[in-house]
Design brief:
Layout lengths: L11 E7 L4 E7 L7 E3 L2 E14 L5 E12 L1 H10 L1 E7 L5 E10 L5 E7 L8
Antiparallel strand pairs: 1-2, 2-6, 3-4, 4-5, 4-7, 7-8
């Protein structure tokens, strides 16, 4: 979370858009970088998505997280391989935050990817 460089084993892109409370970050997670496994008729995986609001100095962070369970039909799996896995994260940036880092961990493979966004990009304009 506090490393200066983003993790690159999983490609993650982020697009901040206005939301009702602060901003919503629209993520696209590269399904081709995940180890999604076929189980019966579905493709499954579990992703852990962490959001770290890092202080201006970069030495401290407030971290929240959630799990994203994937159980995909073959058609959805093929679509996500082409377009990426969509994931929306609502976010209210606290005072003194310099940047927001979103980290994605693939539980099947242990690979990680992250993207860092300047706090100004996710703070609503008044």
């Amino acid at each position: 979370m506090l490393e200066p460089q983003d993790a690159t084993e999983i490609a993650v892109t982020a697009d901040p858009v206005p939301g009702s409370n602060g901003r919503t970050i629209k993520l696209a997670i590269a399904a081709t970088d995940l180890e999604i496994a076929q189980k019966d008729a579905f493709w499954t995986d579990k992703l852990d998505v962490y959001v770290a609001q890092r202080g201006v100095s970069g030495a401290k962070a407030q971290v929240t997280g959630q799990a994203l369970g994937l159980r995909l039909s073959p058609a959805t799996y093929q679509k996500y391989l082409r377009e990426g896995i969509p994931f929306n994260q609502s976010l209210e940036v606290g005072p003194g935050v310099g940047s927001v880092r979103i980290v994605v961990l693939d539980e099947n493979s242990g690979r990680m990817g992250s993207v860092t966004i300047p706090a100004a990009a996710v703070t609503p304009k008044l």
